[in-house]
Amino acid sequence: MTLAIVPFPVDLPTSLALAEEALRCRLAPGEQLAELLPQVAAGIRTGRAGGGLLRTEGVARGVVVWDPAGPVGVAVRLLYLAPPYSDVDGYTEALEVTERAAGPIAFAPGPLAGLPEEVETSLMRGRGFAPFGRSEMVLPPAAPVDSAPLPSGVDLRPVRDSDQGALARLHERAYEDHLDRYLAIEDLDPARDADRQLRDYFAGRYGQLLSPGSSVATRDGRAVAAAIASRHSNRALLIDVMADPEWQGAGLGRAVLSDAVRALRVRGESPIVLNVTEGNDRATRLYSHLGFVRTLGPTREWYDARRLRVRFPNRPSR
Length: 318
Fold this sequence. Notes:
The chain has about 325 residues and is of the alpha+beta class. It has helices at about 10-25, 35-45, 90-100, 115-125, 165-175, 180-185, 190-205, 250-265, 280-290, and strands at about 5, 50-55, 60-65, 75-80, 105-110, 130, 135-140, 155-160, 210-220, 220-230, 235-245, 270-275, 295, 300-305. Helix 1 (about 10-25) runs antiparallel to helix 2 (about 35-45) and helix 5 packs across helix 7. The longest helix has 15 residues, at about 90-100.
């Protein structure tokens, strides 16, 4: 078959129906269709979402939805072919027509409905993609969180407005070549992107920054670890937990996170949630040790390993 991408408004009811089926097929553990569908449907109705119907000979075969292109490429959010078109040849053509229309694909969704996992893996790895996933973790209200010891010469305190520049430099060091940086990247220059990310934190892009509730560890006036929290959708969201690579293994991540959590509890913030990239075993062990439990995920997704230089040890194997 020869696929073409047709704008959603050409057949809006079919576009919405196929997008719903695409979401249904890729729900991660704990995710609810009713919570995800309204945003996707609104993007299709208003034209904010890129993509369209995948059609051949005037018949809708599937749907593709993507975000606006960023500096590393396009993030495809939904890619779905209805049976009997959901085979390797169909998805190969769907990926190719998407790249012709939208540009290089940096992130692609999985699972690809209709393909066995091993077949999907062969297809995506053959195109240079590698797997990753994301999970949400929540701290149960009754989980005890004790303070953690600090190395000699390290001070721990709440984040202040004047810390923005120092935290940007910490962010730049902590996320060098890390997949999480690419997931939120807006500028290829690491320093400018770190500056932008911290401006977003302090300006409230992810909700009101909470301090006390956000903690920074310093040594000789230099930020070496931090946990940053915001109030987002009636919950406390730990939007960033970072440590200087030179200090990894010294317990600083545990110290700033436990301090932030204890301060959030004093404020009466609940629930306390965070997100973690699957395969980041150091972070996952830390969060689990402090009592966080997975409530959503892991998702099943792909990134272009040919174009994104990623240091991602202990990747999940698929």
